[in-house]
Amino acid sequence: MCGIFGIQGHDEAANIAYLGLHALQHRGQESAGVVAGDPSLRRHVEMGLVSDIFTRETLAKLPGRAAIGHVRYSTAGSSELRNAQPFLFDYALGGVAIAHNGNLVNATSVKIRLENRGSIFQTSSDTEVIVHLMAEAREADCVSRLISALRQVEGAYSLVLLTDDNKLIGARDPNGFRPLVIGRVKDAYVLSSETSSFDLIEAEFIRDVEPGEVVVIEKGGITSHRIMPAAAERFCVFEHVYFARPDSLVNGKSVYRAREKMGIRLAQESKIDADVVIPVPDSGVPSAIGFAKEAGIPFEMGLIRSHYVGRTFIEPQDSIRHFGVRLKLSPVRSIVDGKKVIVVDDSLVRGTTSRKIVKMLRGAGAKEVHMRISAPPTTHPCFYGIDTPTRSELVAASHTVEEIARYITCDSLAYLSHDGLMASVGAKADGTGYCSACFTGVYPVALGAPDEAALVRLRRSKV
Ligand code: AMP
User: Fold this and answer.
1) Rounded average pLDDT over 235-261
2) Is the C-beta atom of 205 inside 6 A of ligand 1?
3) Is 343 buried (19+), middle (13-18) or exposed (0-12) by CB count in 10 A?
4) Domain 249-443 is in which class?
5) CA angle, 252 then 256 then 257, to 5°
6) Whose CA is nearest to atom 5 of ligand 1?
7) Which CATH number describes the domain made up of 3-232?
8) pTM for this model (two decimals)
9) CB atoms inside a 10 Å sphere around CB 334
10) Can you give the residue ranges of every domain in the chain?
């Protein structure tokens, strides 16, 4: 996963991009970067968090009225500086910078073809494939070359690009897997993965970039182009379940409200008699609120999260991951002691977190611990940009709900049904409009064989 941001027509473009990336930090913590244009393009990219990377001095070296930025959480390409975005390159038409959120499913196949024709790649990121395809295209302008490149790639992409003639370009793949929204602050237009950044910079939300649309923002305003006729929309439902910030609107809907509805529906499907409902903070909070309201059981913060540790999800070894959960969460004895507790979390992937939480709550005196998950069982890995482990590590891929309950040692376990999830996000009656491949195994865009092998290699290297 990644977060992307762009601004055009503002005297302090790099500063605003920095603030925008702050509000997208939850989408990636491995590296961050900004490219600004005055009009020649300058880049500052480092590994780490936005607030650690950018200082007044580094931002002062990025003058210009347009800028793009990126925060990275690697899903294709390893976590190292050479893969940190935005990428900046020069080609026949001048300088261009690009930042990408998503995952191309045919990048390895296209890369092999390009390498056989003489291309030399500098990174192991799928995004670089788009750059090479733009460089070899024959069209006379940058936007047409981008469209020509995008017609040759498949999978998930939301992109922002900046050219050295001060065009800010945004694009979304024809299925619209990943979000990208347009806003306005004073005379400037902004593009962002989520509206959470608009609130910080006081921008007004205008609309989503449509699936299959390329928007070009320059002095005269916005023009819209199409990559190809629209395909069936497949917005990632996991953005609503876990990834996006609850204060964002994504795909036109409030993330908070969607999660609250998931909790309400979960209570309707699997309510149980208990004394207290507690969330796994932060991601389980809105759904636990919905659950508690619907079930008529008091909501309390029975687990407190330390905000001074990073995410535990991608720690290298199981032993460290176990320890990581305890670093991140601790139980409030006065809330859970002697109580029948319902714990609501947004998802259960390997089961490591839930197992640890159940143990912690029992240690703090809980009489019964009932785990409720506001999404269906995660049975399949994502090919479109969410960092999920390989299938063999997904506990629900090979175990029944009863077996998982035994493994995490809870008194009962229930997941939200797929229908319940779809109703909560306002999907069409037949469930179309969203991609829920991680819960169903129905992949809207197939993954090429070399690409699958490359993705499996990368994910193994991260475990
Ligand atoms: P696990 O211990 O593997 O079952 O992880 C479950 C926890 O990880 C839940 O609390 C989720 O909120 C969180 N989670 C689920 N998916 C992701 C993801 N792609 N990246 C980071 N955290 C995640």
Assistant:
1) 96
2) no
3) buried
4) alpha beta
5) 70
6) 349
7) 3.60.20.10
8) 0.94
9) 10
10) 3-232, 249-443
